[in-house]
Amino acid sequence: MTGRVGPGLVGEIMVSVRGGSEAFYAHPQQPDEVIEPGTQVLIVDFQAPRTAYVERWSSS
């Protein structure tokens, strides 16, 4: 997560694809959730061409 995501905010994520990194717009999967930059997220939905819906990633 490189840009804050929250209600009324469009964030940004960097995704490793095709041997490089690409930026995508990000919205929270839960409309009232706030996710700060630096948080690892899981892409749970995608809308072409460059919009992802995300939730916090927990590795535990």
Structure explained in plain terms:
The chain has 60 residues and is an all-beta fold. The chain is built from no helices and 4 strands. It has strands at residues 11-17, 20-28, 41-47, 51-56. The chain is globular. The mean pLDDT is 93.
Descriptors:
60 residues; mainly beta; four-stranded mixed sheet
Strand arrangement within the widest β-sheet reads 1-2-4-3
Radius of gyration: 11 Å
Report the major sheet. 4 strands, mixed
Shape: globular
Structural class: mainly beta
- Share of helical residues: under 10%
Binned strand content? over 45%
First and last CA, distance: 19 Å
Number of strands: 4
- Poorly predicted regions are none
Number of H- or I-type helical stretches: 0
The mean pLDDT is 93
- The oligomeric state is single chain
Question: Secondary-structure element sequence?
Answer: EEEE
Helices and strands, with pairings:
Elements: E1 11-17, E2 20-28, E3 41-47, E4 51-56
Parallel strand pairs: 2-4
Antiparallel strand pairs: 1-2, 3-4
Give me a quick take on this structure.
The protein is mainly beta and 60 residues long.
